[in-house]
Design brief:
Length: 586
């Protein structure tokens, strides 16, 4: 463990170096000050002291080795990406920064342009291409995959590729894009993976090391710069209950008290003309100086409905008159580039009244210009409460003091289910601004069907492992056929899915051998008992065979119809035959 710079807080940093197949994993649990990894001739000097995990990751970049950086949201993973870009610029090389969504690409383009210079940063999305000759190009992973299949000349000068939010590889629909891109990238290009905490990070890094034939490092920490407190808000209530403290203790007594209060209110049925819960909760947060706040809802419709409902509360004032003027000024400047008829679109006209109340909405259905405008207003502190879908938590660097969940259940396209611990951690991680807030606050609106054990699993559970969702599709096959030197079969054999399957088979075979060894060691106490056991098994097998014969005969139509008469009782049973793999049912 190491002390965080400027504080007495301890953080544990694990640094492991995975070597290609045939080598060994060089485990180096870095500690304390990491003085031995002090970087000379730095590509860039940051105006703050680096955290131990950042120093360890930057040391890997200087060795020109790929690295996976796994840490909580807002821990500072972007520093590693910035250093990789600075290193490429220093050596007159190019770097590609990939993101899972366009919104994140746009924000990274703005942020990196402010950190470096606009001439060093370019952007490529399906809609826009800006400064494509820059040292660093920000793009979605789909665009990188397309470049790889087309054999783009731009890749010849690339030294580094940065995969932001690489845990998106587990996505059922789009995860395969990450695997294709990693497989198709030339081995001379080094990789930087930025990820939330994943339990099988070493497995992923070992796959990359085997795939490229070069070392791949894992630098991970469970340290959270701003500790979080997790509360729940009972329906119809006026206060919140602390359920999980900053030390990670689940307070079940508080949870039971909240459930009891919820049940008593439900029985009384005296709601009357009470304010809606969302307005109560937003007012509670605003009155206690807990803004800015992000309210996560799991559908666009709910986002817009809750934002509109909150904006109509006359007693709720989130922004002053001077801030309203600033909002209008930014809004008007943002729309200057639009044609007049576009400025009259209902979505654009309806958003301004919300913004003037200090309320914003963010989801994929918004026009790109409105999403960007709302992101800027939120960063400037002019939007106090932002209603967003979970895509907002996907890498966008916009922390808040408070995060609110309107529900613990979501529809995943097939069924309504409880959100996973990984999904909760990803969204809740937006609470707490490093260097500004001592603690972050997460509030969940209580669901009456939520049991203590389920709540514990969501709040305290481990993040989901990185599991491949690789699958063949027509797009992949057509791209491979059109590209020279790309064999779909080789992509399959090199995939993370194949690697995980081989590991699974190996462990199964090992377990099978262990069981076989246990069976071979089993011995009957003496020959007499052994003969009796054999005779019993033979009789049991004969009995089962006879039952099967009886069953087969009695279920013949001409026989069965003779005995199936009204008033008779039919007994249904299952007969398992040891001489057959089937289990006939009578």
């Amino acid at each position: 463990s190491a002390a965080e710079p400027g504080t007495g807080k301890k953080q544990r940093v694990l640094h492991e170096r995975c070597l290609p197949e045939g080598g060994t994993s060089d485990v180096t649990s870095k500690s304390a000050s990491l003085d031995d990894t002090t970087v000379e001739d730095a590509a860039i000097n940051f105006p703050f002291e680096l955290d131990p995990f950042q120093t360890a990751a930057i040391d890997c970049l200087h060795r020109e080795e790929s690295v996976l950086v796994a840490a909580h949201t807002s821990a500072g993973k972007t520093v590693v990406a910035q250093y990789a870009i600075a290193l490429a610029i220093k050596h007159n090389q190019r770097v590609i920064y990939t993101t899972p969504i366009k919104a994140l690409s746009n924000q990274k383009y703005r942020d990196l342009g402010m950190f470096f210079s606009q001439q060093d940063i370019g952007l490529m999305t399906g809609d826009v291409t800006v400064n494509s000759e820059a040292n660093c190009i920000v793009m979605t992973t789909e665009i990188l995959r397309s470049m790889l299949y087309h054999g783009s000349d731009e890749l010849r000068e690339v030294a580094w590729v940065i995969f932001d939010e690489v845990h998106y590889l587990r996505d059922k629909e789009r995860g395969v894009v990450w695997e294709e891109s990693i497989i198709l990238l030339p081995i001379q290009i080094k990789l930087v993976f930025l990820s939330a905490t994943i339990p099988n990070s070493l497995e992923f890094a070992q796959w990359v090391a085997n795939l490229k034939g070069l070392p791949c490092n894992v630098v991970q920490t469970d340290f959270r710069p701003t500790p979080l407190q997790h509360f729940m808000f009972p329906a119809g209530g006026n206060g919140i209950f602390l359920i999980l403290d900053e030390a990670g203790n689940f307070l079940e007594d508080n949870f039971i008290k909240m459930m009891t209060l919820q049940d008593s209110r439900a029985e009384s049925k005296t709601k009357g003309k009470e304010q809606p819960d969302i307005i109560k909760l937003v007012s509670f947060v605003a009155d206690r100086g807990m803004c800015p706040a992000i309210v996560f809802a799991f559908s666009r419709r709910e986002c817009e409905a809750l934002a509109l409902q909150t904006s109509r509360c006359k007693s709720l004032r989130l922004v002053g008159e001077s801030q309203v003027l600033s909002i209008k000024e930014v809004f008007e400047k943002a729309l200057q580039g639009l044609a007049k008829e576009d400025q009259e679109l209902p979505q654009i006209q309806n958003i301004l009244p919300l913004l003037c109340c200090g309320i914003g909405v963010h989801h994929s259905g918004l026009l790109p210009i409105l999403r960007e405008l709302i992101e800027i207003l939120f960063q400037e502190g002019l939007v106090k409460v932002l209603f967003a879908t979970e895509t907002f938590a996907l890498g966008l660097n916009m922390p808040a003091k408070t995060c609110i969940f309107t529900n613990c259940r979501k529809f995943d396209g097939q069924d309504h289910r409880w959100i996973s611990s990984g999904e909760y951690i990803q969204m809740a991680g937006r609470a707490g601004r490093r260097g500004i807030d001592d603690k972050g606050c997460v509030i969940t609106m209580f669901d009456e069907h939520l049991e203590p054990e389920t709540a514990r699993d969501i709040l305290c559970g481990q993040p989901s492992p990185l599991v491949s969702t690789f699958h063949l599709n027509y797009n992949m096959i057509l791209n491979a056929m059109r590209s020279s030197g790309v064999d779909p079969e080789k992509i399959i054999t090199k995939s993370f899915h194949q690697y995980q399957s081989c590991i699974s088979v190996s462990s199964t075979e090992l377990r099978s051998k262990e069981l076989e060894a246990e069976v071979s060691e089993l011995q009957a106490p003496n020959e007499h008992d052994d003969r009796e056991a054999e005779a019993f098994c033979e009789l049991l097998e004969l009995s089962n065979d006879l039952k099967c014969e009886i069953s087969s005969f009695s279920t013949k139509p001409d026989v069965a119809l003779g005995v199936l008469r009204p008033g008779r009782v039919v007994k249904v049973m299952e007969i398992i035959s040891s001489s057959s793999s089937s289990s006939p049912t009578v």
